[in-house]
Amino acid sequence: MAAPSGEACGLLERSVRQRVPPLLTDLYQFTMAYAYWRAGRHREPAVFELFFRDNPFGGGFSLFAGQHDCLLFLRSFRFTEEDVEFLRSVLPCSTDPAFFQFLRGLDCSGVTLRSVPEGTVVFARVPLMEVEGPLAVVQLLETSLLCLVNYASNAARFRLAAGPGRKLLEMGLRRAQGPDGGLTASRYTHIGGFDLTSNVQAGFLFGIPVAGTMAHSYVTSFSSLEEVCPQTLVAANGDAGPVDVISLTKGWLSRVCELLGSEPAKIREGELAAFLSYGIAYPQNFLPVIDSYSVGCSGLLNFCAVALALSELGYRPVGVRLDSGDLCGQSVEVRRVFRLCSQHFSVPAFDSLIIVGTNNISEQSMAELNRKENEIDVVGVGTHLVTCTKQPSLGCVYKLTQPLCSAAETRAKVQSSLQTLSPRHKRLQEPDAYTVALSETLHNLVQELQKCSSDSNNFLLAN
Amino acid sequence: MAAPSGEACGLLERSVRQRVPPLLTDLYQFTMAYAYWRAGRHREPAVFELFFRDNPFGGGFSLFAGQHDCLLFLRSFRFTEEDVEFLRSVLPCSTDPAFFQFLRGLDCSGVTLRSVPEGTVVFARVPLMEVEGPLAVVQLLETSLLCLVNYASNAARFRLAAGPGRKLLEMGLRRAQGPDGGLTASRYTHIGGFDLTSNVQAGFLFGIPVAGTMAHSYVTSFSSLEEVCPQTLVAANGDAGPVDVISLTKGWLSRVCELLGSEPAKIREGELAAFLSYGIAYPQNFLPVIDSYSVGCSGLLNFCAVALALSELGYRPVGVRLDSGDLCGQSVEVRRVFRLCSQHFSVPAFDSLIIVGTNNISEQSMAELNRKENEIDVVGVGTHLVTCTKQPSLGCVYKLTQPLCSAAETRAKVQSSLQTLSPRHKRLQEPDAYTVALSETLHNLVQELQKCSSDSNNFLLAN
Fold it and tell me: How far apart are CA A148 and CA B230, in angstroms?
């Protein structure tokens, strides 16, 4: 995975500024900020907590991500003259002009953001972020922060469902909520455990490895071998002159049909032309989609013929993509044919061909795929991943905390808190102890600290 | 509704350029474009059709929108040197360097976009757009066009469910798929029939009317009347000096409690302070959220007291927002109290107060709300609107059409087409006629044309 370039990092920061101007918020943040300002309360210290109420997808956890974008947003939070003039046009005309002067000078220099570390497992009702600063300013940040705090949870669930051995490719850009929704999805699914994305701009901005070869439209755009051009290829070692790769492939196709007992009449010439054309363009990156017509009667045979021709010329074909039907069953049959070709034609490269499966994969079908016999090495996921079909929103909230709460409120809290305790712990005489266990990490940390402390005591004694 | 300014239009165009660079696409578009280029097919004329396969949300139609963004995207489609260098780093190293030279010169000047008009009702399997141009170029456009063609269908369904009389407010920014997802949602829900948005940037860029007053956090940030500042207000006509609005409101609160038989002890002083503070800041735009504590025991009484005080000073309060519980039932009770106050205190302004309802509204709860007795004038919708919970993706596809298809293919099409016809229409002798009816509009058009034609014949005869 290539790290994003310095330019890309700069672009990312500029992109956050452009994507999240301070006007990208709900109007009521401004009317409230004005009311605070009018009452002279705008500089009062305030703390808001950002949290969600229920773990998403019916699961037991969520994942926190988005801190970096939040920091960039805070850093660039400043109103332009154009912003202020627009606000003047939409706020009630009774708004004191001095408020707009106040907005002109506003930034987040007085704001402190405390947050759980990026990428940590988080739970319902536990604050993910605490935003502390002047009341009017932290109020104005609410909507943008809620919008920026994204979650890698859905991708992480797909990762868990897929098991650790399989590579996962995100390919949901076309189904995302607008262009930036697509970028957001690519970024956070990578954070959540996906290995690859089809989104080139996500590769450019975030350094995520990109992948992809061909669509069905490429295959169906060919109808005959006459369209293949050039029709020759030089061997990988460059030794001999150009080889007539069409004749070579036709020869291999006959042998493959014979080996598998297939009918040459059912083979689609356009598909063979498409594979050959792609193989000639990218002889070291040959991975076609083989189900445009029929995997068993045409696509698999055409793949094997072109891949065997490329192998004969010293190139290493990569694999195939299955995009419809019973992915598991087909992958098993495809693998069987690869092994047969490897043995029969003595082409060991056929043992390491990869099979990519893509076909409207949901969390459920991913889990099923993991239970059934199959030979799929890479799974591509689009719609269900980027739209979070199962639960498209986490429902985070941003609540003002009240550390100055009244005696009566604290009294009520004490009572309700006591009610959570079992009577056997509340007995005034000889109560049962409430067991508080240390986690393994905390236990180890305590032991280490004790050791350090004893070492340091020894050191003091020695001196 | 303010039209977007010239600057905003320019911003919108720049924003599309920045949001949809030509790299915002799937990698396989580039590998395919290269293979076409390598085979000398990149300039071949091609036509792709963009359509969807099933009407969304289990309904009978969809709505088309996004044409304008598509046009801006095509107009600005051009690779920067940085884009080309990134592509060089991710495409296989065997890629011919001349391909990158080809990309440097690429634009959409040879591309024709035909589309159904923006905002039209559309149906499954009918092309929404036809993109015609050089094969490699129209291939490269696929993912971005699919991502840009958005749909106002979900908003239109909410509009239909709400009935024509009620105003609809979109307030989903915080639940959207990233910042731009929020802007996209605000724009297309407005197109789909929503009247207002809470999203200020959407107001700035697209001229959508913005609305919003206060959140619960504003209410809970106050705890006592001492926090109200300033404590005076000058009457609307400016005649008298500053009036002690706290005493005035306290007086009204007693009278309201007496009228409704309410217990003054249950009233939250902090809520009254918040309402008063807001009312002093915006005396002509007073619309608080009244369910932070209890609508019946506190919020409604506090609202009436402040609104009556404002009315006495010649201001016109706007209304209330309900954000939890049984919106319909509460709205009926709130309206009853408004009417009672109007009559009892002779304040006719109380007859035109509006009630806003916002509480996790779905298409289903909107339809229910339309069936039950209620007094809600404006409904605010967030999560279910912007995330399209019911079906978060339409699943549009972009398919290469084949007008040069073979005789065999045409023959097969003829056969399957004939199979769709009933045998009684296929009888070779005395077949039943297949009734083709004219729509009313078409019938009128034909009559008009006949009339024109007869007029023009008359004209010819006369000459």
Answer: 36
Residues in chain A: 463
- 3-state SS, residue A231: coil
Alpha-helical runs (H) found in A268-377: 269-281, 300-312, 327-344, 363-371
- Asked if B200 lies within 8 A of A23 by C-beta distance, the reply is yes
| ipTM of this complex | 0.80
Least confidently predicted of A53-57, A129-133, A314-318, B67-71: A53-57
Q: Does A389 touch chain B (CB under 8 A)?
A: yes
Residue B403 confidence (pLDDT) above 70: no
- The C-alpha atoms of residue A438 and residue A244 are separated, in whole angstroms, by 71
Among B41, B86, B245, B397, the strongest candidate for a mutation testing the A interface, having the largest count of A CBs within 10 A, is B86
Provide, as residue numbers in chain A, all residues whose Cβ is less than 8 Å from the Cβ of B285. 31, 92, 94
Sequence-ordered list of residues with C-beta below 8 angstroms from that of B4, at least 6 positions apart, any chain: B12, B204, B205, B206, B207
User: Which positions ≥6 away from B457 have C-beta within 8 Å?
Assistant: none
Nearest CB to B173: which of A147, A212, A221?
A147
Q: Radius of gyration (Cα) for chain B, nearest Å?
A: 31
pLDDT (tens digit per residue) in B361-392: 999 899 899 899 999 999 999 988 888 888 88
Q: Say if strands A396-400 and A45-52 run parallel, antiparallel, or are unpaired.
A: antiparallel
Cα dist from A58 to A64, A394, B317, whole Å: 17, 11, 44
Cα three-residue angle B72-B77-B78, rounded to 5 degrees: 145
pLDDT in tens, B129-151: 999 999 999 999 999 998 888 76
- Judged on CB neighbours under 10 Å (0-12, 13-18, 19+), A28 is buried
Q: Kindly give the pairing relationship between strand B129-134 and strand B112-115.
A: antiparallel
Q: Would you call B62 an interface residue with chain A, using a CB distance cutoff of 8 Å?
A: no
Contact A283 B35 (CB under 8 A): no
- To the nearest whole percent, how much of chain A has pLDDT over 90? 59
HEC readout, chain B = CCCCCHHHHHHHHHHHHHHCCCCCCEHHHHHHHHHHHHCCCCCCEEEEEEECCCCHHHCCCEECECHHHHHHHHHHCCCCHHHHHHHHHHCCCCCCHHHHHHHHCCCCCCCEEEECCCCCEECCCCCCEEEEEEHHHHHHHHHHHHHHCECCHHHHHHHHHHCCCCEEEECCHHHCCHHHHHHHHHHHHHHCCCCEECEHHHHHHHCCCECCCCCHHHHHCCCCHHHCCCCEECCCCCCCCCEEHHHHHHHHHHHHHHHHCCCHHHCCHHHHHHHHHHHHHCCCCCCCECCCCCHHHHHHHHHHHHHHHHHHCCCCCCEEEECCCCHHHHHHHHHHHHHHHHHHCCCHHHHHCEEEEECCCCHHHHHHHHHCCCCCCEEEECHHHHCCCCCCCCCCEEEECCCCCCHHHHHHHHHHHHHCCCHHHHCCCCCCCCCCCCCHHHHHHHHHHHHHHHHHHHHHHHC
* Residue boundaries of the structural domains of chain B: 17-151+393-400, 216-359
| Other Cβ atoms closer than 10 A to B455 | 10
Domain B216-359 = CATH 2.60.120:
no
Task: Report the CATH fold assignment for A1-151+394-415.
Answer: nicotinate phosphoribosyltransferase (3.20.140)
Question: By the CB < 8 Å criterion, does B15 face chain A?
Answer: yes
The minimum CA-CA distance between B291 and chain A, rounded to whole Å, is 16
Q: Where are the alpha helices (DSSP H) in A174-286?
A: 178-191, 200-206, 216-220, 245-260, 269-281
A interface test, pick of B42, B201, B214, B284 with most A CB neighbours within 10 Å: B201
CATH of domain B17-151+393-400: 3.20.140.10
